[in-house]
Amino acid sequence: MILLTGASGFIGQHLLSALIAMYGIDNVLALTSNPISGCKYLLHNNYQFERSYFSESGYANSINIIIHAGAYTPKNASQSNDWKRCNENIYNTEKLLDTDLPNLKKVIYLSTLDVYGKADLISESSLIEPISLYGFSKLYSEKLIASWANDKNKMCQILRVGHVYGPGEEVYQKIVPVTIKKIIKNEPVQIWGSGKELRAFIYIKDIIKCILNALNLNEDIGPVNLVSSNAISIADLVNKLINISGKVINIETIATTTVGRSLIFDNSKMKQYLLLSETDFDSGLAEEWHYMNQRNGKYIL
């Protein structure tokens, strides 16, 4: 049985559906703060449970894999140093690892690119130097899991998730959903500064494929960045979304003294082990546009 945390989040909702489709409803268990229909679940109450929690619930002997996707994730930059919430990432990971699961063989942990420092090209060999408490909390949780796996002779796989786009990301204040919402409302869209800084987005379905493939990895390959190698400027991204909508939308350029940073990734390790090819960016954007447009920009997955 696979235990999934974070099943109500952006990635978690997609992942839960994929796991049930692949393994069946009886082989997937969600550890969640709120009830979820259509699956087996246990409520964790902010991870305030005892070591025997899964034994008392009758699932301890069945669980052999954990996918730890649950975490506090800032919805915008201003939340990235919320020390109370960031500390929850460490505490919750520790509580999860300390439970009595006698047949547990592997933990897959969804981490973040925020563990890296600044680099012209980010890869798994880039400098580890978080600039936020959120990044530090995820890095420390990585170390907790790796140390636990070594001590217990278990397998672990760290997946550092990059800039994900697709249906369901509207809850975050990110460039794609924010722009789409403005287009839906026929409002001007904004570009801060020149718009020349580069971003690379990976589609949610590709992320899910990577995680599912990681379930079958039987070798220690170290952390893997789940990222796209196809970079696009913010200005070109905004124009793509406007073209997909078929609308005539004004673009407002907002002057700023901040120089935008380009983020470019090397995803050769991901393609070697977890994903042969990425979803076409235009096709993925079109799917997200149609999803949000049908729901008038509201967050319903």
TrEMBL record:
NAD-dependent epimerase/dehydratase domain location: 2-220
Gene3D superfamilies reported for this sequence: NAD(P)-binding Rossmann-like Domain
Recorded superkingdom: Bacteria
One protein family per Pfam: Epimerase
Family from the record: Belongs to the NAD(P)-dependent epimerase/dehydratase family.
Name this protein carries in UniProt: NAD-dependent epimerase/dehydratase family protein
Record organism: Mucilaginibacter arboris
